[in-house]
Amino acid sequence: MPAGLKDVIAGQSEICFIDGEKGILSYRGYDIHELAPNSTFEETAHLLWMGSLPTSRELDDTTREMAGSRAVPAEIVAIIRHFSKNAAPMAALRTGVSALALFDPEADALTPEANRKKAVRLTAQVPTLVAAIARLRNGESPVPPRTDLSHAANFYYMLFGKAPNSTIERLLDVALILHADHEYNASTFAARVTAATGSDMYSSVTSAVGALKGPLHGGANANVMRMLLDIGDISNVQSVIRGMLGEKRKIPGFGHRVYRTEDPRATHLRRMSQEAGAREGNTKWFNMSVEIEEILKTEKNLNANVDFYSASAYYVVGLPIDLFTPFFAVSRMAGWTAHLLEQYADNRLIRPRAEYTGHAPDLRWIPVDQRQ
Ligand code: COA
């Protein structure tokens, strides 16, 4: 049995295709290199949920439905207000997403239409949760969502109280497109396993947020930036990275379970990090990243993954480091919910077996006072 279920096909899906040898990623048949420069997050979310690119009327409808679903109940904001100011935003988000179910009368309705509406609602509300979590821990009031801004711009607006310029909006929008789905990754699989028991969408995406939080998955982007800050200066890159490799430590942002060549999302994020650094007059983190990438390629034949260059790109446009992974969740909610719609449409309990490696089942119970 392959450790970590490596290369095991665990189910069928029409949503996302990855060729790890050739570095191909496509959503519903559209290569990510087609979508990243041309699409928007709203359009990509519609594509993932519905299976085809929207007509202009459908896109208007989806965009309006998403924008109109952004507000979260006041009770949710009140709950977040009581979180510890030191709570990790991903832990707070996990609880926030779970709490949304308590105020949705349709939380347990599993009809296709009820689930489609919840997919839109959940995707629309995650940015509102993340921004409220970020502001309340700083003692600031949450900024209510606007309906006239894109998903990307509205997230920035709710975070900082001002709309982004068009360049930052596009950077965030493309990042959202690139992160929106990735086949049977750990968090999506966790979501599908939960849904396959017949449980509801909120429970399923709560499982997913918990899985995304881990440093081997979505948590890696924040760790990339922490590493860059620890290294501090390009003159330290060689010694620190070679030292980490010498100690057999994993370098965040490198390696992948599926890709054996460049992660196609990293191709876009590298360029985005470079351009954002140049625009913001802060090329230091990009330059350090390039040098780290060269060492990893030469020494370990490892490629940068989606998390490596997203870190420096987000940092130079001012996203707080511990919001990098929540921002990943803002995007991936579209993919998680698309997979849930697919799971519910043709459900079978997901319940694999374990290869038993414990004691033979022949032990006899001994009273506690006779045990050694
Ligand atoms: N830095 C250094 N070495 C790495 C590495 C990294 N980031 N990623 C993998 N390797 C090495 C491993 O040490 C191992 O070497 P070995 O065979 O000499 O022991 C080999 O590459 C295979 O790695 P392994 O951890 O077994 O692969 P995996 O498929 O189980 O794990 C990841 C995949 C993504 C979890 C792993 O590459 C990793 O931990 N990366 C860093 C975290 C990260 O960026 N996660 C986000 C993924 S999108």
What's the CATH H-level superfamily name of the largest domain? Citrate Synthase, domain 1
The total of helices stands at 16
The backbone outline, from C-alpha atoms, is globular
For the record, the CATH architecture of the largest domain stands as Orthogonal Bundle
The average pLDDT is 98
Strand-residue fraction?
Answer: under 5%
User: What order do the SSEs take from the amino end to the carboxyl end, as H and E?
Assistant: EEEHHHHHHHHHHHHHHHH
Cofactors, ions and other ligands in the entry: coenzyme A
Total domains: 2
What's the total number of strands? 3
Largest sheet geometry: 3 strands, antiparallel
Q: Which bin fits the share of residues in helices?
A: 55-70%
User: If strands are numbered along the chain, what order do they take across the biggest sheet?
Assistant: 1-2-3
Quick overview:
By secondary structure, the chain is mainly α. It has 16 helices and 3 strands.
What does this structure look like?
Helices cover 57% and strands 3% of the residues. The chain has 372 residues and is mainly α. The chain is globular. Strand 2 and strand 3 (30-31) form a beta hairpin. The chain has 16 helices and three strands. The protein has a three-stranded antiparallel sheet with strand order 1-2-3. It has helices spanning 32-38, 41-50, 56-68, 74-81, 89-100, 112-137, 151-160, 166-179, 186-196, 201-212, 220-231, 237-246, 264-280, 284-300, 306-316, 324-345, and strands spanning 16-19, 24-27, 30-31. It folds into two domains: 14-215 and 325-345, Citrate Synthase, domain 1 (Orthogonal Bundle); 220-316, Cytochrome P450-Terp, domain 2 (Cytochrome p450-Terp, domain 2, Orthogonal Bundle), CATH 1.10.230.10. The structure holds coenzyme A. The site of coenzyme A has 17 residues, from helix 15.
